[in-house]
Every structure is written in C-alpha cells, then in structure tokens.
Amino acid sequence: MRVAAFQRLPACDDIDAGAEALLADLEWADARGVDLALFPEAHLGGHAYLAATIESRAMRLDGEAVRHLLLRLAAIRSTAVLGLFEWRGEQIYNSAIVVQRGRIIGGYSKAHPNEERIAPGNAFPIFECAPRRFGINICNDANHPHAAQAVADAGAALICFPLNNLLPPDVAERWRERHIANLVARARQTGCWILSADAAGEQGGLVGYGCTALVSPDGDVVAQAREGIDDVVVHDLP
After folding, report:
1. Which residues in the chain come in under a pLDDT of 50?
2. What values do phi and psi take at 74, rounded to 5?
3. In the CATH scheme, what is the code of domain 2-236?
4. Has this prediction a pTM greater than 0.90?
5. From CA 80, how far away is CA 40, in angstroms rounded?
6. Residue 124 CB: number of other CB atoms within 10 A?
7. What separation in angstroms does the CA of 198 have from each of 31, 61, 71, 153?
8. Whole-number pLDDT of residue 130
9. Quick one: which H or E segment has residue 129?
10. Where would I find the CN hydrolase domain in this sequence (predicted)?
C-alpha cells in the first residue's frame, strides 16, 4: 500500500483555486501509484478558529462546491482524505471526508474541536483501502489518547491525522517538537501506523513548521516532510 501525505497551505476562501491545486496533487499521486492520499485539516476552504470565519468557510456535502469538486475527482484512482468545515443541519463540524473515484464513502468529525462554533463528533468509523483498514483523527485529537484508541480498537492498522498547525509564531515555536512527539506516542500506544499531513509556511501572520510524517507502529519516524515549505511524503507500507 503506497501512501502520500501532502504538506500544503490552503487556498483560504477560494474554492476554485483550492480545487485546482487539489486536483493537480491527486493527479500527481495517481501517476505515482499512490493508494491513499492525505491532506491537511480544513484544507478545502481553509482552517480558522473564530466562529464568523468558520461559518463563511463551511460547506454542505450536498452543495454545489462539493458536487463540482467530486465530478472533477471521478477519474482519480487514489483514495483521498480531505479536510473541511462541514455544515450538517445547523451544526458545523470539523470533518475529513474519504473520497474514492469522485464519491464520498464516509467521513470523520473531530472529536475534540478547539475552534469556536464547532460541534464535536462522536463516531470513529473505519475505511477500507486494500489491503489495509484505516481510521481518522484530526489535529487536537492527538492530545486525547482515547480517540486514537477507539480507531485502533475498531480494527484499523493505520490512523490518518489531518493537521493544521498554523499558529502565532511564539506558540508555533513552543509546539515545534511536541507535534511529532504526540504522533509517536499515539503510534506506540495503538500499535498502528500513523500518517499526518500538515500546513506549513506563513499565512495571515501565522507560522507553521509542518508536521507531515509517517510513524511506524514502534514509534519510528519513517519519513518526514521538510520544515516550513510545501512538500510531500510518499512511502510504501510493508
């Protein structure tokens, strides 16, 4: 099973530009035989912490923007895990959808949101990407061991972590090493492979060093993206 994690800045508030960049990345992945491609937290539309911005960026899965994107992804073989703020009724969730051949086969909503206005998810679904089963945790969930354990207990061999660690510069520096330490701890705790995709660079006064990596069940960092820039981690799981 070949996995890829894309370290990218989002095209905030520009769905068309975001869709173009996403399609280019997935075509790149498809050409290289990637089975599972992971993108950062709220990559579609951009992440935020304030309620007003979140409301403006949130999308409905049956809305025009998502339907148009799915049509464009119909020819992509790689399974994609895509983050977005999701309107569901009158609630907004910080979600990651799983897309295969232009179809949403399911999704996960962040169990421990640290953003305003976001409702917590309470389900830990498992997905198939032959020959492995995988689940999802999102960013702050990594600070809560039970979230990863729930995925492992459901039978996952791989946990995908969409991240968005664009933070004020002083906070980013304090967390620079702690992000990867959290993922190593979740791997050792669960005995699962851990794959993360983060945002990196500077945007809106925020800084992200990036914590895009693949960690083995023993806690070894098998591959990690370069700090502070767009990058991609590609690896074949044994």
Report:
1. none
2. -60, -30
3. 3.60.110.10
4. yes
5. 11
6. 22
7. 22, 23, 26, 25
8. 80
9. strand 127-129
10. 1-238
